[in-house]
Amino acid sequence: MSFTVVSALDSDCVVPYQTNPTPSFTSTESPRIMSGFVPGPLLTVKPSRGLVDEKFEVVVRNLSPGEEVTLYSLHQSEDKDYWEAFGHYVSDAGGTITVAADASVGGSYLGIESMGLLWSMKPVPGSRKGLRLRKMDACSPMLVHISVHRGHISQGFAEAVPLATALAERWYLAPGVRRVEVQEKGVKGTLFLPPGPGPFPGILDMWGGGGGLLEYRSALLASHGFVSMALDYLPWDKKPSKARDIILSYFESAFNIVREHPLVATDRVALFGLSLGASVSIALATTSRVNPTCCVCINGGHVFSPVKHLESLQINQKVFFDENNHQIWRNINLPIPDDPGQKMQLGNIKCPVMLIVGLDDQNWPSKECAEDMEMIMEKAGNVDLLTVLSYPEAGHLIEPPYTPHFRSSNFILQYNREKVVLCWGGRPKLHADAQEDSWRKILQFLRLHLCQKHAPALASKL
């Protein structure tokens, strides 16, 4: 495996994995077949290095027919917390287990789940409460250790001696993608640039009200051929007197930084947001000062300005609690107001918009907002621009595929820095299905409206 360091203006980033068709593995016994020698179990992972949204194939060979084993995955996060998943399997008549074709009969996931060893990960027993697995350094891989153990076991993996092990590297950054830090025009963010001369379609990528600079989704978008800027927009240094106008001008400046980049096709720039970032995207799409080519909005709304939402979080009479005393915020903005003056002017939208809706979202009234948006745009005559993807039992945090599900996690309130535990909603299996399906359709949507429909020359670059 070789690495190349590429200078990217004021930031250096290591170009990651090189495709290696031969997976790394170790076994407690040699896999060679010699006279009178029975080879030990062999565990393979292909590809052993790949993007996080790429499936891998896990196969165990050289078992006895009908042998019961446990496949186990382990990852140590950047915060030094351990995450695990496991499945119980029975080998076929040839002594082989193929995870993509054979069912797990027990463990953290059930049935035929080729990526269950990733999406069903949870903190190991005894871990800190309220954890959420997020990649903070997009230039380094997520390392997943996979092992196979004799018998169907559900605990004690740290002490168990594996029959064989393998290491999988999961990257957000494809080879040649560059990372560039941005601090200009009062805007702070990180640009990710695909390899090549361009021009490429551009994306302004925004996360939610938790604040901070999160880069991993932008890195993955750049790995699929888009110039993408992850934007840092919370917390504010000070509260401006005309908060909504000044805040929207900040996002407009960020959008223009992407649009004016020399590698970007100026008329092919999208908005991509989750939660508060989705509401910001809708607000920008309804103004005349910014004209995005298309928008992807995950679990956001249209019934308030971004700043009004942040202020409303201080009003807790509509905050409910689940059975674990975790806060539920979806009722803060319910019922949807009848007064059009309390909503964004959706009739002004002139670009295609994709709404991703988790029907078990416990943080935001995403379902009600999507229904109201569709009704408003129907009356305004622009509903043909709206695509709604609704997912039963999916929660608020719909992320790139195979990201573990979190029904609740710690959250820092921006206005007073208090730490609470928020309930996001969702059920692991159906939430995982939603993440995989929505990501595939998001990429199709972006390619359609940024590339194929209007610019065949750009589509050929992706």
UniProtKB/TrEMBL annotation:
GO term, biological process aspect, one: acyl-CoA metabolic process
**What family does the entry list?**
Belongs to the C/M/P thioester hydrolase family.
Q: What is this protein called?
A: Acyl-coenzyme A thioesterase 4-like
Active-site residues are: 275, 361, 396
Recorded hits in Pfam families, A to Z, give: BAAT_C (PF08840), Bile_Hydr_Trans (PF04775)
- TM spans, by residue? none
Q: Which residue ranges does the record assign to the Acyl-CoA thioester hydrolase/bile acid-CoA amino acid N-acetyltransferase domain?
A: 53-184
Q: Name one GO molecular function term.
A: fatty acyl-CoA hydrolase activity
**Ranges for domain BAAT/Acyl-CoA thioester hydrolase C-terminal:** 248-451
